Amino acid sequence: MPGVKVFGRKTIYEFIKRHADVRGQSLAWLAEVEEAKWKTPQDVRAKYPSVSFIGDKRAVFNLKGNKYRLDTGIAFNTGVVAIVRMGTHAEYTKWIF
């Protein structure tokens, strides 16, 4: 049975061109998520304890400790993760949800 469908990979690929130090962790996150069978926020938190949920369907993942943030939309009912944006911690503090 396939895992979660991920849309917006280009956001990660473009970001790691500018921030090579997060390349390995970003690609590892992507591979792990594609294999995941997330049905609830608790499923996500079991693998990523530092994830922040914003509302019902948004999740922000910390990468490289707290240096980078990955903003996603998660539709648990359809098994889809949409990458919304990726940024530095400084950029994250300016994001509006």
Record the strand order, biggest sheet: 1-5-4-3-2
From the helix content, strand content and strand pairing, which structural class follows?
alpha+beta
CATH topology: YaeB-like fold
Quickly count the helices. Answer: 4
Mean pLDDT: 94
Q: Care to describe what's here?
A:
The chain has 97 residues and is of the alpha+beta class. The protein has one domain: YaeB-like fold (2-Layer Sandwich), CATH 3.30.2310.20. Helices cover 35% and strands 30% of the residues. Helix 1 packs antiparallel against helix 2. The longest helix has 13 residues, at 23-35.
Structural descriptors:
97 residues, 35% helix, 30% strand, YaeB-like fold, single chain, alpha+beta
Question: What is the compact description of this entry?
Answer:
The protein has 4 helices and 5 strands.
SSE arrangement:
Blueprint lengths: L4 E3 L1 H10 L4 H13 L5 H7 L4 E3 L3 E6 L4 E8 L4 E9 H4 L5
Parallel strand pairs: 1-5
Antiparallel strand pairs: 2-3, 3-4, 4-5
Helix pairs in contact: 1-2
